[in-house]
Design brief:
This protein has one domain (10-176): 3-Layer(aba) Sandwich (Rossmann fold), CATH 3.40.50.850. 46% of the residues lie in helices and 20% in strands. The protein has helices spanning 19-22, 27-47, 58-61, 66-69, 88-93, 107-120, 137-150, 157-165, 173-180, and strands at residues 10-15, 50-56, 77-79, 99-105, 124-133, 153-155. The chain has a 6-stranded parallel β-sheet with strand order 3-2-1-4-5-6, with helices on both faces. Helix 6 (107-120) packs parallel to helix 7 (137-150). The protein starts with 9 loop residues before the first strand and ends with a helix.
Length: 181
């Protein structure tokens, strides 16, 4: 079932949270999505999830914000296509994955196009709605509605993390609980 996340077959993809792009976002919204992305990344690290992060045209939009980059391992995936699926390295990195949790920006452009392409390729796609944003609330809402209408699961950071942990008896539960606080 597409609604069920399993840590052995789920990847987190953090899309384009870059130095120059974040300047176009509402300050309060940016603060919340940065905090939630950090929770997702830390939680993914605790559970050993495959985590990918992309940068759209780094030369123009800069690097992934340091707050997040400090907790990400490996190199970013460089892209100029709006969909992450337009990059061969991205697609190859998802071998063995069945579900993808998407976060980042902008909801109605890069997140949307990535979600649609992933669903067309057969992946179950979960959108952490409190970890994605657009320059306007209308565009954010429109992107979420479009993805949900296409079959994506619209969820939130805590739901993703606790669904992956499965229960209080797991070794990761205490660490995830501390990340959520």
């Amino acid at each position: 079932m597409k609604q069920i996340l399993d840590k052995s077959t789920t990847a987190l993809v953090v899309i384009d949270i870059q130095d120059k792009l974040v300047k176009a976002m509402d300050e309060d919204v940016l603060k919340k999505i940065t905090e939630n992305n950090l929770r997702l990344i830390k939680g993914a690290n605790v559970m050993g999830l495959k985590t990918l992060f992309t940068q759209q045209y780094s030369k123009g939009l800069g690097d992934t914000v340091m707050t997040l980059k400090d907790h990400l391992s490996g190199e970013h995936i460089e892209k100029t296509s709006f969909s992450c699926c337009g990059v061969t390295d991205f697609n190859e990195s998802l071998k063995g994955i069945r579900s993808v949790v998407l976060s980042g920006m902008e909801t109605h452009v890069c997140v949307l196009q990535t979600a649609l392409d992933l669903m067309n390729a057969g992946y179950a796609v979960h959108i952490a709605a409190d970890a994605v944003c657009s320059r306007s609330k209308f565009n954010w809402q429109t992107g979420l509605r479009m993805m949900e209408g296409a079959g994506a699961v619209i969820t939130c950071t805590e739901t993703v993390l606790f669904q992956l942990v499965k229960g209080a008896g797991t070794p990761e539960f205490k660490e995830i609980s501390n990340i959520i606080k």
